[in-house]
Amino acid sequence: MNLIIKFSKFEKYTKYSIFVIIIFSVIVFYLTSIYHVSGDGCWHIPAGKFIAENIKFPLFEPLGRDEPFWSPPLYHILVAAVYSVFNAFSHDAANFAVKFISPIFGILSLIFLFLIIKKLVNSRIAFYSTIFLAFVPIFIDYSVLEYVESTLVFFVVLSIYYLINDRILLSGIAAGLAILTKYNGLFILPLLLYILYIKSKTKKILYKNAGVIILLPLLISSPWLIRNWVLLGNPIWPFLNFIFHGYAPKSYSAANFSHLFHPNTIIFTYLGIFGVPDGNYHSLTFANFQNLQYLLAIWLLVTFIFFIPLIFGFLTKFKQRKLFSIWIIPFILLFFLYVINVGWSVSRIILPAFPALAVFWALGYEKSIAISKLKIIKAAFILVVIGLVSAESIKVNFAANSWNVYREDFEWVKSNTNQNAVFIANGQCVPYNIERKSLYVTDENLKYAEYIWINQNFNLDKRSILDDQELNSILSKNYKIVYNNKNTGTAIYSTR
Fold first, then answer.
1. Dihedral through CA 41, CA 42, CA 43, CA 47, nearest 10?
2. How far is 389 from 395, CA to CA, in rounded Å?
3. Would you call 291 helix, strand, or coil by DSSP?
4. Are 324 and 353 a contacting pair, CB within 8 Å?
5. Distance between CA 339 and CA 288 in Å, rounded?
6. Which pTM was predicted?
7. Maximum CA pair distance of the chain?
8. What is the pLDDT of residues 174-217, one digit of tens each?
9. Are 434 and 453 in contact (CB under 8 A)?
């Protein structure tokens, strides 16, 4: 009853925002419940489980990638904590529970974003901003996927929230936790320093607080950066390895400036923002829907309509324009750096800037309503949001059903092989699903492996597909086949 009374006293845009956050919560909790772990989640979750089971960080242990464990570990520590608690009930309960870390941080990010924008601008713009962030597909995606981005966005937003409320120490801690979630968190520091600049009454106060904002995050994140520098020869391994010349220099070891001028940079980024996995348009051919070309045309139109207010917003002048621009610009610079060093699949790199982009979208949306003065504009955007959310639901359901096709294969491994058995299985998602120690194909690894997983049609993780040389090398040894599923194309060989 007290909550109802308190809610009734809120002004209308705060009430509207609460409704949006509730709707978003229902959406991401539902999608998370049916979603099957895939992509980088197949690496992050096993790393968290390893920490839970061994009370130490992994390094060269085979967790699904043919590389050392380098990622800033805060998300993995959270996975370890949740896994440990729920594993006391059952293994399945623990696997299910860790999936909900991302949606919880996504919801918290929306709440604190509303509070920030309400204070810096007004509650109406805060409401519109909440709509943008809640329903832009990339934010829905990473509030569902077992990736680190949702946790990163939360700590970035939290650092700003604390700073605008004069909680300098807590802001520095939140910024440090952002860096300890992903290196990208470092790029929020210019905004924090700018906020200090406009809030500080004297240079002495500015320098004192700036020291806290710079040194405290670096102090919090430094143990991990030092660890990577000592063990891998590069504090931010594997990025910028062409500068540090750390372990395995083949990993992102070059700078390719031609990527900046390639059309894929724009195409991959746009598609990634609107929910295409990694922005890769080739993944669209994976779905075999009837009249797919017409569905894609409608989808592109819907995304463009949703994008239009952002254009108007960038042309709008408002009091805090400089502050929100400084929030975005460092992540744009990071975007270009990532394109040069890594490749085109970069949309999620700028996800921490989306709360600021939400403000520009909100201003543009408000402007478009003011110009048109037609209720049909609001109705059109409601339909656009419904379309985007529906597309997300279809995508997640399709992916979950695609993984379910291989459930029999995964269950056979769990039921018919020793828990400590060693498999040859390239990629990161086959090892995650069979829950067995897995090595990549090499002559040396074949000496240790007891089983070999082969499926040349496993498009859910193309890294698991063997090249001709690897396949021929295995088949030439005449290993005994112990499992063969003609429906899925999975064959398992015993080396013993």
1. 90
2. 10
3. coil
4. no
5. 30
6. 0.93
7. 78
8. 999 999 999 999 999 999 999 999 998 888 889 999 999 999 99
9. yes
- Position 401, amino acid: N
Q: What span, in angstroms and rounded, lies between the C-alpha atoms of 401 and 397?
A: 6
Q: To which residue do tokens 């009370």 refer?
A: 55
Closest CA to 154 of 108, 102, 101, 216: 108
DSSP 8-state assignment for residue 493: E
Distance of alpha carbon 256 from the chain centroid: 24
**Euclidean distance between CA atoms 60 and 237, whole angstroms:** 14
Q: How many helices and strands in the chain, by DSSP H and E?
A: 22, 5
The rounded distance, in Å, linking the Cα atoms of 351 and 149 is 7
Give the DSSP H or E segment for 441. none
Q: Rounded mean pLDDT of the chain?
A: 91
The DSSP symbol for 349 reads G
Contact criterion met (CB below 8 Å) for 425 and 434: yes
Residue appearing with tokens 């890294």: 463
Q: What tokens were used for 256? A: 């390719």
Segment 63-112, tens digit of pLDDT: 988 889 999 999 999 999 999 999 999 999 999 999 999 999 999 999 99
CA distances to 86, 146, 382, 433, 459 from 483, rounded to whole Å, are: 33, 30, 51, 16, 20
